[in-house]
Known about the structure:
The complex is a heterodimer. Chain A is built from 10 helices and 5 strands, in the order ααααααααβαββαββ. Chain A is of the alpha+beta class. Chain A starts with a helix and ends with a strand. In chain B, helix 2 (46-56) packs parallel to helix 3 and helix 4 (98-106) crosses helix 9. Chain B is globular and about 40 Å long. Chain B starts with 12 loop residues before the first strand and ends in a 6-residue tail after the last helix. The relative contact order of chain B is 0.10. The longest helix of chain B is centred in the C-terminal third of the chain and has 29 residues, at 192-220. Chain B is an alpha/beta fold. In chain B, 52% of the residues lie in helices and 13% in strands. The chains are: A alpha+beta, B alpha/beta. The interface between A and B is medium-sized, with 19 and 20 residues.
Amino acid sequence: MATAVENSAVAAAMLALQMRHWRTSLAGGLLVTVAVAWALSAYSAGAIHLWLWALLCGLGYAALGLICLRMERQPELNSEPTLLRWLMVILPASMGVLWSSLPYWLPGHETNLQLLAALLAGVVVIGASSAAASQATLFAWTLPVLAIMPAALAWHADLPVAAASVLLVVLLILRYGIRLQHAMADTIRQRQRAEALYNDLTAQQARLRDLERTQTLDTERRRLLLDMHDGLGSRLVSALAVAERGRAQPGELADELRECINDLRTVIDSLEPANNDLVSLLATLRFRFEQPLQRAGITLVWRVNDLPPLTWVGPPEVLQVMRMVQEIMANILKHASACRVVVTTRQVDEDVELTIIDDGGGFDPGEPSSGRGLRFLQQRADKLRGRLEITSHPGAGTTVRLRLPIHLT
Amino acid sequence: MTQNAAHPFRTPAVLIVEDDPTFRAMLAAAVAAAGDMRLVGVAADLPEGLRLLDQQAPDVLLVDIGLPSGSGIDLIRYAKQRLPQCESMVVTVFADDQWVVECIAAGATGYLLKGSRDVDIVQQIRLLLEGGSPISPAIARRLLMQMNHKPDGAAPALPTAMTLSEQEQRVLSLCAKGYNYKEIAPLMGLAHSTVETYVKRIYQKLQVHSKTQALHEARKSGLALE
């Protein structure tokens, strides 16, 4: 099945090749015909016959030209077994007959002339058989020559040796033509296979890309959903609870809703492209914490230095880091009663280090009441494959140190 | 606090153009309660905003980007042309929106976050009038990217009116790292007011830059009629 399709594709390509060159082929044939008629008539008494022969040849070329023109204008005709396609065989066969019967148009006793005519016809057959054409056309051209020319030479010109030689030469030409056609068909077939392979590969790559994109979108969507559920969703629910109680402290509901908006902003920030730079991330957070800290009378000391981008960090990780910093800042605002908060970043070997130090009340890390917030931070640090270190003593402030690797090994 | 330089003896006039009624009322209340500024008009849409802008010639314009009959950017552009002393502030939900950069390119010199507290809103307006409206790190980053972007390789070097000087780039990159003007000044060995001047100049350059770039893009796509 596949080969049948392939063969017809090869045949179509061969025909296309033929169509591309039909003008030069026909012009060459016509020129040679006229030259032969003119040359032979110079030596021959029966010149009128030769010109009649040339006229018939010319008519044949004209008919072939008309068919080619027609097929060129309507390429869809190529694929159907119409009269046109039959003519593409019948007309070359007639040309073969005309050329091979050339000895009959000459006086039989003029042996030199006969040999010359046979030689010229041989050259024309070589030319015809090496042009791109279907096998049917090739046989249409050569078979009449194979049958008629030796007969004409043997019986009309009485040149049996020449007849045998012509038979041999035309057979060789036929074999050469067939081989040439096979070689052409092979080349075309290989090119077509390569193209098909290329198209397949391109399509497959596009499919893979699509799949990858869908998967990325899906992961992202699930992450956002989960985050919305845990973060914004639960905050909104608690804001709703505050509102429904109807006995909210002044500003309590507003604070709760403001937290919701902040949360939404954090999620949106985490989606910012090229956000694997910890410094940009902290900068964005600082901008958000500046005013609440100011209101609480806390001075923020910013010692943030350039860090290499973290190669493995994408939106989910950015969100984790942002949530951690938010949690630490919220703790300082709520519990620490600090005057100063120092935020520092630096590179330590193959890690980046973020340190947040406050001079507030501190706490006892062993006490169970401080457990929940710490567990939250530790969980997030673990998810990030980072190292978290919290040191604090009652009355001596708190230091939170987070180390993240620059490259994941 | 210092008064607006253009009008040393009168409290700065504020015009608000915002289509959301609740938020409009809230902004108006915050400005009215501030004491050191006065509200000269409130509009809900673009035509009314344009009319009030001509009539009141405010010192500060607070404008929402998405208005029912057009973009607030048009209003900012108009204010920039008609009232060069007027400072425009974009009112937006998200500070790092690309819109904000476009508003700055149109002539805005600051922005207000929807959902901020009253005191913060008033504080932001005061900062703007003092000449030092802060740039958010995200916007600083965007500005850096936008201004360092060359139109294309074959284009001749941009004139200095459109490229950032080394100092200006440093100011922006420090902003992008989260430093505020007060901290940037000693880091760069400059006076606080010089940092503010740099930022204003960056804004101006962005305006020129975006105009030229728009023209360049238009020419490339064969739209400019000149």
